[in-house]
Structures are given as C-alpha cells and as structure tokens.
Amino acid sequence: MNRYPDTENNVVWQVLATPGKDSFARFLAEREPATTVMSERYRTDALDRRLRNGGRFYVYGNRAAVFHGPGGFFYPVGLAPEPPAGTDLRTFFGSFVRLYSIMGQLTDVEILASTFAGTPTISIDYHLLHHGAAPKIEIPPPPHPELVIRTPKPGDWKRLLPLQIAYEVEEVLLPGRRTNPAASKANLTESLRSQIVLVAYFRGEAIARVATNALGYTIDLIGGVYTDPSWRGRGLARWLMSHLMHQIGRDGKGTSLFVKPHNTAALRLYNHLGFSFESDFRISYYG
User: Fold this and answer.
1) Are 185 and 273 within one domain?
2) From CA 216, how far away is CA 159, in angstroms rounded?
3) Cα 54–Cα 58–Cα 60 angle in degrees, nearest 5
4) What CATH number has the domain bearing residue 261?
C-alpha cells in the first residue's frame, strides 16, 4: 500500500494494490448499495498495480475511495459534497491513463470527472433504487401455466444468446454502436458463471430473464432485466423479480438496481415491488 503526503487530520490517500484489509471491506459494506460494484471487485478481482488483469483502489481513510480498473473504468464513492483535501487525486492515476468511463452516484461522478481534461461523449443518468432483505416477499403466480423458471448453466449460452443480444441492443449499447455477438457471448457466459441468473421458458423457449450484476457484502445489484416484447404487460418481469429477490433475501441480503428516469413502466414495477429511491446515479463514457 503506497502512501502519499497529505494534510487533513493525519489522513492520507493510499493506493490499495493488494487485498486483505478487513477495514476496507467494512467500509464498502457500510456504504452499499452505492458501493456494491466496488464490493464485488474487491472480493473477486485480482488487484493489479499495473492494471493489466485486475484493478486498484485509492482509499482516503474511512471517508472516500476510487476504484480504477483496466481499460479506464473508474468508480468513486465519498468524494461529495467536497473532495477530500490533500494531494490532487488525479496525480495518482498516472500521466497516460486511458479514461473510458466513470460510474457511480451523480455528485461523485461529477467531482471525479472534473479532475480529467475533456468532456464525456455521453452521460446516462439513472435512479439508484434499494430494497431491504425480503426472504418472505410475496411471489405472484406465473402469468401462464406453461411458464417455468430455470437457473441456466454456462453451457446453456447458445439458447440464451438471442435474448442477451436483444437486451444489450435495447438497454446497453451506446448510440451508434453495433452488436458484437462475440462480446455478447462473453458477457453472457461470464454472467452465467459468476452471477445469479433466472430465465423464464415457455414451451422450451427463453422469453425473459433477470440476473444480478454484482454480488456485494450486504446487497446484490440486479441488472439484465429483460422480457421479449411479445410477452410484455403480463406481469412476467414482476414474477421473475419476485423469485430473484426472494432467493437473495434468504441469504439475508438486500437488493438494488439502477433504472433510467424515463422508463416509467420499470419504475412502476419496482415501486410495486417495494424499492425506494437511494440517489441519482450516472455513467459517463469517454472517447
């Protein structure tokens, strides 16, 4: 762990390039759901001082942290309302850092973005929503008697790839970008390997899915919620979400997700399921 000179109450920015500090795990757990993505990175990624295969954390006492991942991904927490005093955080990243995206609560993203030159190509705003642990959540009946829910395995990727691509086209791809089946396959197989994925099948055909995007200490982040357009409006997403929330809640964990403010149908669903507003959230992309 490298220390940099600072200033405020004998607290210093530190570069955490090797895991093993329980105090930092507690720091992340106490700030979920805002830090769930960071929690998973700290738990599962190999921290790498050279940023080739893992990432590293810049930590400021028990107040703030920034995750810096390979490929120029940054995730800050605790920078707002005022960034911690001391050495300019930007100097820690290196002179030739490649900035691809900044993700996190809106004010933290804005503060970190101000340390870089240039403006993002596009920024997408969301609402970060949160639900406490719900082991006894009410699960509605299936919208159709022939519907079944299964937990797919990594080897099932071929049957699920069309659903994955449709989801990415509608919810993930940036304007002007085209689908990349190889990348979609990689995203899907990694999700099937490391996340909780539930798929609804009708007569053997995959028609809807829900999944986690990050597994934290106290909260799991839900993402990848998608229903085939021909099945929308029948309660399929609510049915799947209820099953996933119940499964997560049995382990004593809560759930969170982020949703675009103009997605009124999704907001109605999540409000009905008992989610509450946590904060504004943003992902800014560069280059």
Assistant:
1) yes
2) 28
3) 155
4) 3.40.630.30
Q: What is the dihedral of CA 42, 46, 51, 56, to 10 degrees?
A: 30
Residue 126: inside a domain: no
Number of domains, the chain? 2
The pTM of the full predicted model, rounded to 2 decimals, is 0.90
Tens of pLDDT along the chain (287 residues) come to 333 344 445 567 788 756 555 889 999 999 999 999 999 988 887 666 666 667 888 888 889 999 998 888 999 999 988 877 655 677 777 766 789 999 999 999 999 998 888 899 999 999 999 999 877 888 999 999 999 999 999 999 999 999 999 999 999 988 888 899 999 999 999 999 999 999 999 999 999 999 999 999 999 999 999 999 999 999 999 999 999 999 999 999 999 999 999 999 999 999 999 999 999 999 999 97
Question: What dihedral do alpha carbons 106, 55, 195, 163 form, nearest 10°?
Answer: 70
Last residue of a domain, one of 118, 141, 156: 118
Alpha helices in the chain (DSSP H): 22-30, 36-44, 90-93, 106-113, 157-167, 181-194, 236-249, 264-272
User: Taking the CA atoms of the chain, what radius of gyration do you get in angstroms?
Assistant: 20
d(CA 43, CA 219): 13
β-strand pairing of 101-105 with 276-285: antiparallel
CA-based nearest residue to 222, from 200, 247, 202: 247
